[in-house]
């Protein structure tokens, strides 16, 4: 596979990407897993 073109990002794009990465590292994230008990439902 060959590279057909190369694009350099501007300073604004670099700042936005840096702030996005920093936000994902510093902002707390919550994950909730729920497994319902369907044994009565399946009977």
What is the compact description of this entry?
This protein has helices spanning 11-26, 39-42. With 43 residues, the chain is mainly alpha-helical. The mean pLDDT is 88.
SSE order and pairing:
Layout: H1 11-26, H2 39-42
Characterize the structure shown.
- It contains two helices and no strands.
- The mean pLDDT is 88.
- It is mostly helical.
- The longest helix is centred in the middle third of the chain and has 16 residues, at 11-26.
What are the salient characteristics of this protein?
2 helices; 47% helix; mainly alpha; 0% strand
Question: Averaging pLDDT over every residue, what do you get?
Answer: 88
Q: Rg, please?
A: 22 Å
Number of strands: 0
Strand content: under 5%
């Amino acid at each position: 596979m060959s590279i057909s073109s190369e694009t350099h990002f501007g300073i604004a794009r670099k700042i936005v990407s840096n702030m996005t990465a920093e936000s994902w590292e510093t902002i707390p994230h919550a994950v909730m897993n729920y497994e319902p008990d369907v044994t009565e439902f399946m009977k």
